[in-house]
Design brief:
5-stranded antiparallel beta sheet, 6-stranded mixed beta sheet, globular, 276 residues
Length: 276
């Protein structure tokens, strides 16, 4: 997602439908001034100074910054795409830019008493050499590991090869949630034992004129006491593109049918979402 100079109203309808779940997003582009955000282009994404407060009001507690737009504004608050440090620790600039929202890298959030570890990796240049070790180290920090990956390439319903490799390594490291974003297209959702994989979440909101993919998914996860996934739901949304607000999908059946055609095998189909 890229919020630009938009506010929390961009996410209000979706966040209200997901409440009281804690929101985790991929934030495309660093945080700069309002003028920086206004001057952003499809090739250079920037978010305005209100971004942290807007995400906070929308129930977002963590924003991944490992993506191909992380360094689009030299010297801005969020520039290090593969910063592996927990932002509750050392980087005061990042904390000021997104007050109340952890940027990661790697971070740990509390979900119903469970320590859920979130990781973000950019696969633009392939699978990082130390990915397995980094994920294993992250997994040891909490009760459940959620591994997110950003991929770059043409919009496609099928996962890229580097994503398939990274997802397998994440599962081997003990991840119970693997979620991918970046090509702007949705992908299948797969239940793999105690874990769930969302191969493509599509778009949430983009103020830039850089994508026309209006389909998106929110992956809502309930954790069991042992840190495994008790239930996962894929909720279709209509992305907030070009200044519009993101909303629950007006015709979720189309997206649910598409997910089935891509190989998704839900345990239950509800009126507005699939359960896995």
């Amino acid at each position: 997602m890229q919020l630009g100079n938009g506010g929390s109203e961009r996410l209000a309808a979706v966040s209200a439908a997901m409440a009281p779940a804690k929101g985790v997003v991929n934030l495309e582009g660093p945080v700069g001034s309002a003028a920086d955000a206004q001057a952003a282009t499809a090739a250079r994404l920037v978010n305005g100074p209100q971004t942290g407060a807007a995400l906070n009001r929308a129930g977002v507690v963590a924003a991944g910054i490992a993506n191909n737009h992380a360094s689009d504004l030299a010297g801005a608050a969020l520039t290090h795409a593969n910063d592996r440090e927990d932002d509750a620790g050392r980087d005061a600039t990042k904390r000021a830019a997104l007050a109340g929202v952890a940027t990661f890298g790697v971070t740990v959030i509390d979900v119903g008493g469970l320590k859920v570890v979130l990781t973000a990796h950019d696969l633009e240049h392939g699978v990082p050499r130390d990915l397995s070790a980094e994920l294993a180290t992250a997994r040891a920090r909490g009760d459940a590991l959620v591994a997110t990956f950003h991929v770059t390439g043409p919009a496609s319903y099928l996962p890229r090869l580097e994503l398939v490799e990274a997802a397998e390594l994440a599962l081997e490291a003990g991840a119970v949630v693997v979620a991918a974003h970046g090509t702007h297209a949705i992908g299948s959702v797969e239940r793999r034992g105690r874990a769930v994989i969302a191969w493509g979440l599509g778009n949430l909101t983009f103020e830039c004129a850089c994508t026309a993919e209006s389909d998106g998914l929110v992956l809502k996860v309930d954790f069991a006491a042992d840190g495994s996934v008790a239930r996962a739901q894929a909720v279709p949304i209509d992305a907030g593109l070009h200044g519009l607000n993101a909303t629950l999908a007006k015709d979720p059946g189309l997206t649910m049918d598409l997910l089935r055609s891509l190989g998704a095998k839900p345990t239950r189909r509800l009126s507005d979402r699939l359960e896995f």
